[in-house]
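User: Can you help me understand a structure? I only have the sequence.
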Amino acid sequence: MSIPALRIGAATLPNPVILAPMAGITDAPVRRMAVRHGAGLVISEMLASEALLEGHPEMLLRAEGEGVSFHAVQLAGNDPRLMGEAARVAEAAGAGLVDINMGCPAKRVTTGAAGAALLRDLPLARAIFEAVRGAVSVPVTVKTRLGWDDGSPTAVALAEMAQACGLSMVTIHGRTRCQFYTGRADWSAIRAVKNAVSIPVIANGDVVSLADGLAIIAASGADGVMIGRGAQGRPWFPGRVAQALAGRVVEEDPPLDLQRDILLELYEGWLSLYGTALGVRQARKHIGWALDAAAKGQGNARAAFVERWRRGLLVLDEPGRVKTGIMAAYDELMWRAAA
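Assistant: Let's start by predicting it. Here is the structure, written out as tokens:
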């Protein structure tokens, strides 16, 4: 299988594989690393539009785009005027693309009538599309789900409305909001959206292997794939999927010594971005995911290995000791692989 490079408005991406925006996860160091390893596009963590306008420090950190050649931000909210103003601020700060979140299932987001809640209020969704599209000159896109629940499949209607309002791309996660992340994403259901619009459609949900990357395109007919949880601890993975979609033979994960070096570089990036105290804490979940990915070849011993090193590393507050522990964990894995 080989699919062409992806065009979003006036922008042409090198490949159609996108790192999903994930709050608290896809921060600037992760995005930079994903781009370096071949992701076609990376999108910021979700930014609350009102908090961005107020200059909230957390939103400014999330919007950081240094080191990424094509900077994209994702906005969430339910006030068209504020969403438009936030989009204008993001563009002025260097964003080359603004994505609108209409898919987040978290209760703290949907109770504020934002995220996936907008699947139940299409007139408000349209007003947001029009406000954001009218506020900026860069491409505007939307990420959403199949619907609120199984009884209200609204993805096709939302995609048609997005296209009519001048948006340049729609991403569909193959679940409803009420499914959250349970069960399996329905990749084939995304095909109805692809058949309904001419703008690019990106398929999202449950892509954790190279085979999944090929299968989601075949099942959905989509123009590209967005990878979320499959990239946790594996910032190289979107680039590897891109190579597989281009018809290249590639290993799913790089050698362990490269995985170690990537994690150590990311660790320095988190310390630099957040400061030492917060950076140490922010890094912990990533270290756990990275160790789990690195230990894939351990079979039944994988869980015990990861748990042992998590208990040893994720309670440490001194960066030097953490880095020494990371190196020791990977040394053990490489020794086991060579034995």
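Now, to help you interpret it: The chain has 14 helices and ten strands. The CA atoms of residues 280 and 317 lie 6 Å apart. Let me know which part you'd like to focus on.
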